[in-house]
Specification:
The structure holds 2 protein chains of 2 kinds.
Chain A lengths: L1 H17 L75 H26 L13 H10 L5 E3 L5 H7 L3 H9 L32 H16 L22 E6 L6 H12 L4 E7 L2 E2 L2 E2 H4 L6 H4 L5 E6 L3 H16 L6 E6 L18 H10 L2 H11 L5 H24 L18 H16 L17 H5 L2
Chain B lengths: L5 H11 L39 H5 L6 H4 L3 E5 H15 L3 E5 L14 H5 L4 E3 L4 H13 L3 E5 L10 H8 L2 H5 L10 E6 L14 H4 L6 E3 L4 H13 L4 E6 L2 H4 L1 E5 L11 E4 L4 E5 L3 H16 L3 E5 L2 E3 L3 H11 L2 E8 L4 H12 L9 E5 L9 H4 L3 H13 L1
Helix pairs in contact in B: 4-10, 6-7, 12-16, 13-14
Classes of the chains: A alpha/beta, B alpha/beta.
GO molecular function (chain B): branched-chain 2-oxo acid dehydrogenase activity
Protein name (chain B): 3-methyl-2-oxobutanoate dehydrogenase (2-methylpropanoyl-transferring)
Catalytic activity (chain B): N(6)-[(R)-lipoyl]-L-lysyl-[protein] + 3-methyl-2-oxobutanoate + H(+) = N(6)-[(R)-S(8)-2-methylpropanoyldihydrolipoyl]-L-lysyl-[protein] + CO2
Chain lengths: 471, 399
């Protein structure tokens, strides 16, 4: 690494010497460090890499924080559903809180049924959000609908809160002809242009630098350097709001190089981006003790020069307060990134391809389910306010169940997308090579019709033809 | 530490300065002197090569140029200046265009972004931290939100940290977004590539073949200033992500008359540089100059006639032009710097074998880098040279 670095610096040096006369005047940005040499008895070092560092004669290594002084976890509701800081309050109306509650229940009911459907072989794959409903739904509710969101895969609640319908979820899960992804992605890889949420990809952490780049695009639009691009905010909004980008990822994904790259470039380009880490204790089977040795993900924020907060992910009000404040901070002074680490426990298995009891005790999971959970905590608050009871709960759950099953059955019955969608959208237009491949495939389909079952696809085995005639 | 004496400083600076770009020898490769008695492997004559437009008339005769450009003026510039002009025009005409990368702001280590930060502001032309995966990922996100970022990777040799972002993200963005229609097609990734005489392992590579194995990407390699300008502008404006690989040895060496006005060149067309009837040579980028020199010698020595094709766009590539030529000549040679196995030559040769089998009178020959790394002092025996292309023509026509 060091050699590579030095090798790369050789050229510019040589070139700079050569053309120093032709050197243009480049406006020095305000953040640029200046390498002013220090005087003999100065208090500060003035090395360009750390301008504010003071001399010390004590040889003392900076030690990582010990357990007793780990970064605090911000909470608003205690486990009994009582608001702790009365002044700050829940900052929500009963009606609004009820909607959040209903969405959390809807998500958990959908998760239970879909997990079961996968076990019956009716879906190829599924991932539940159990224990993390509050993070997704709480943060989505604190954002503006036109804010741009990038997710990892355990944020179905973000889609739900923004208005993704049960039919849309089911269409994607069954990869049918109404699926936004045109049947190309694995289940749970949702995407929606109307809701300003980019389509999920399986590659972990790759979306984190995307969010930084998208936030830069939004910054230029917020500042009017570039005209506004894309769909306007929701129809109820008449005036254009300043927008932020929001990026979700797990604590495991934060070990990827893309996390480092993204937070660093977000800080140097001063982008309005909120990074939300769901720290649920596990990355598949890997506990956090094998993932990192610092104080979680939050402790890294300061290293990048990013405002950071750790929040109780089981407390939807705390999540909302945190994200609302983060949004204000992100838009301050033209833009800057903010990091939120939302603490949670992954109650469910990693996915339907995982049996988590192979690496953690069943009792540990049961304990978490019983002890604390974002849904029951909000329910306690609602009950405390006298707006919720057992009867309503029963009615909500059975009603939701019926709704999910109805959408499920309809989506399951629908046809798969036309097979032309296997080839379209790779490039903007079909290439000559692709056309040749489609012709060859079409010929195979014609001559070996019994080898392919394409009845379930729109247009059946003739799907490619419609693309081939269109020249 | 004691301050260095001025004499020592001057000495160390002159040692650090890469010899190839000394202003006193701008057009020759003085670091690799020809062997005494060499007739084929002599320094390339960029000043007289027929591949470059030495007159304004020749430059404007190109039928691919729009009418108004053909009526306009030309200016003698080198390849980095052509890149700079394309970037300048893109920045001027489209507010969505951004230019960024490592060391971009002061003009770039190869001078391609000279004066752009000063003229367009550091909001649109800026340095990024030293992280290829970061800056390419950042570019993808900006493109997915509708901007047209032109990201630079300082050397093609350092594109690999961004391989995941390019292969799994940029290339698949439109496909996986399905009917939502979201894509990152505004993205262009520029990178200097190819041999430079003394680049050794990590300043020499031509990794284009790795990206021609990825559906969804366009891979472009210009051979001259005229092409660099037209193809880069087309790359920035196309709605597909493009990897634009600039042969760095040509940055200063290739100088020609270039139309002053902006223009685009097609991203899916090869160019027949010289017609012939006995053998077709297919290449792209720097080796075209090697081929041109080898062809001149071979035609003189063997009385043969060689057709030379510049692929220009490596993927998706123009099969039709290549096949039409090979069907006419019956013989083909593919030349590129990167190693032979699974290189671009493999794809071109396989396509010729499939589509022109009955017209072939000799096996398709590949002249490419050997299956090794480019060790510093061994470059001249690893990268295809005039002798090897000359010999390939000889063997192919004598087969």
């Amino acid at each position: 690494m060091s050699f590579r670095y030095s090798a790369r610096r050789l050229r510019p040096q040589g070139l700079a010497v050569l053309s120093s006369r032709a050197q243009p005047f480049v406006r020095a940005p305000t953040w640029q460090c200046r390498g002013v040499a220090s005087t003999a008895n100065a208090e500060k070092v003035l090395f360009p890499g750390a301008l504010n560092s003071e001399f010390t004669s004590k040889l003392e290594f900076l030690q990582p924080s010990k357990s007793k002084d780990a970064i605090s976890t911000y909470r608003c509701l205690n486990q009994y559903g009582e608001v702790i800081d009365k002044k700050m309050g829940a900052d929500t109306t009963d009606g609004e809180a009820l909607e959040l509650y209903k969405n959390m229940v809807k998500l958990s009911v959908m998760d239970l049924l879909m997990f079961e459907a996968q076990r019956q072989g009716r879906l190829s794959f599924y991932m539940v959000s159990a224990g993390e409903e509050g993070i997704a739904i709480g943060s989505a509710s604190a954002l503006h609908p036109s804010d741009v969101i990038f997710t990892q895969y355990r944020e179905s609640g973000v889609y739900l809160q923004r208005g993704f319908t049960l039919a849309q979820f089911m269409n994607q899960l069954f990869a049918n002809s109404s699926d936004n992804g045109l049947g190309r992605n694995m289940p749970v890889h949702y995407g929606s242009k109307e809701l300003n949420i980019h389509t999920i990809s399986s590659t972990l952490a790759t979306q984190i630098p995307h969010a930084a780049g998208a936030a830069y695009a939004l910054k230029l639009q917020n500042q009017g350097i570039v005209g506004r691009i894309g769909a306007p905010a929701s129809s109820t909004d008449t005036k254009e709001v300043e927008r932020v980008a929001v990026c979700f990822f797990g604590e495991g994904a934060a070990s990827e190089g893309d996390f480092h790259a993204a937070l660093n470039i977000a800080a140097t380009r001063e982008v309005p981006c909120i990074f939300i880490c769901r720290n649920n204790g596990y990355a598949i089977s890997t506990p956090t003790s094998d993932q990192y040795r610092g104080d979680g993900i939050a402790s890294r924020g300061a290293g990048y020069g990013i405002s950071t907060l750790r929040v109780d992910g089981n407390d939807i009000f705390a999540v909302r307060h945190a994200v609302k404040r983060a949004r204000e901070l992100a838009l301050q002074d033209g833009g800057r990134p903010v990091l939120i680490e939302a603490m949670a426990y992954r109650v469910g298995h990693h996915s339907t391809s995982d049996d988590s009891f192979a690496y953690r005790a069943r009792v540990e999971v049961e304990d978490w389910k019983r002890r604390d959970n974002p849904i029951t905590r909000l329910r306690k608050w609602l009950e405390g306010r006298g707006v919720w009871d057992d009867a309503k709960e029963k009615e909500l759950r059975s009603g939701t169940r019926k709704e999910v099953l109805k959408a499920f059955e309809e989506a399951e019955k629908a046809k798969k997308p036309s097979i032309k969608n296997a080839f379209t959208d790779v490039w903007e237009n079909i290439t000559e090579e692709q056309r040749a491949h489609m012709e060859e495939m079409n010929d195979i389909l014609k001559r070996y019709p019994k080898e392919y079952d394409l009845e379930g696809y729109e247009g059946g085995a003739k799907g490619l033809e419609e693309l081939l005639v269109k020249k | 530490m004691a301050a260095r004496s001025p004499a020592l400083r001057t000495l160390s600076r002159s040692l650090l300065r890469p010899q190839s770009i000394r202003p006193s020898h701008p057009h020759s490769r003085c670091y690799s002197a020809a062997a005494a008695g060499a007739r084929l492997n002599v320094p390339l004559e960029y000043d007289s090569t027929p591949l470059l437009h030495h007159t304004s008339k020749a430059a404007l005769a190109n039928p691919e140029l729009p009418e108004h450009v053909r009526k306009g003026q030309t200016k003698r510039i080198n390849l980095y200046t052509a890149v700079n002009e394309a970037l300048r025009h893109a920045l001027q005409t489209d507010e969505r265009v951004l230019v960024f990368g490592e060391d971009i702001q002061f003009g770039g280590v190869f001078r391609c972004t000279m004066n752009l930060a000063a003229d367009f502001g550091t909001e649109r032309v800026f340095n990024t931290p030293l992280s290829e995966q970061g800056l390419v990922g950042f570019a993808i996100g900006a493109a997915a939100e509708g901007l047209r970022p032109v990201a630079e990777v300082q050397f093609a040799d350092y594109v690999f940290p961004a391989f995941d972002q390019i292969h799994n993200e940029a290339a698949k963005y439109r496909y996986r977004s399905g009917s939502t229609g979201v894509h990152c097609g505004g993205l262009t990734i520029r990178m200097p590539c190819g041999s430079v005489g003394h680049g050794a392992l990590y300043h020499t590579q031509s990794p284009e073949a790795l990206f021609t194995h990825t559906p969804g990407l366009r891979v472009v390699v210009p051979r001259s200033p005229v092409q660099a300008k037209g193809l880069l502008l087309a790359s920035i404006r196309t709605a597909d992500p493009v990897l634009f690989m600039e042969p760095k040895i040509l940055y200063r060496a290739a100088v020609e008359q270039v139309p002053v006005d902006a223009y685009e060149l097609p991203l899916d067309k090869a160019e027949v540089l010289k017609t012939g009837k006995d053998v077709t040579i297919i290449s792209y980028g720097t080796p075209l100059y090697t081929c041109s020199a080898a062809i001149a010698a071979a035609e003189k020595d063997f009385g043969c006639s060689v057709e030379l094709i510049d692929l220009r766009t490596i993927y998706p590539w123009d099969r039709e032009t290549v096949l039409n030529s090979v069907k006419k000549t019956g013989r083909a040679i593919v030349v590129h710097e990167s190693m032979m196995n699974a290189g671009v030559g493999a794809e071109v040769a396989a396509t010729i074998q499939e589509q022109a089998f009955l017209r072939l009178e000799a096996p398709v020959k590949r002249v490419a880098g050997w299956a090794t790394h480019t060790g510093l002092v061994f470059e001249k025996i690893i990268i295809p040279d005039v002798t090897r292309v000359y010999d390939a023509i000889k063997k192919t026509i004598e087969y």
